[in-house]
Amino acid sequence: MARRKHSSVEEEAQIDMTPMLDIVFILLIFFIVTTSFVKPSGLDYNKPEASQATKKPSANIFIGVSKTGVIMMENRQVDVERITANVERMLAEAPEAAVLIQADQEAKHGLVVKVMDNVKAAGVDKISVSAGDE
User: Fold this and answer.
1) What angle do CA 56, 66, 72 make, to 5 degrees?
2) Which domain of life does this protein belong to (predicted)?
3) N or C: which end of the chain has fewer CB within 10 A?
């Protein structure tokens, strides 16, 4: 009789891994599906090449300038005149923010300079222009 009792104890000691594997696969599917819906924000643009381009730390304020003259901030189109007010508002939230201007290679440099002037007028000292392989 002792043998029967001993063999039933061994059977109870086994752990069923099936529910844990089901949960892991469900989480895997969830993360795969949710990451496929993430759409990068901003404009599609071709950055100009620069031989002296260096990597800068991540900026807090992004401004995109397309080759057609469209200016984007916070995933919305902005006029050149409204850049100063928008940057001032964003600086109130994050006083140490830096600005990164992502301009298309074919964007008019006059427009990019106006954007830079308006950012400077808002009181930002750290302005970077995206170029090369950043």
Assistant:
1) 75
2) Bacteria
3) N
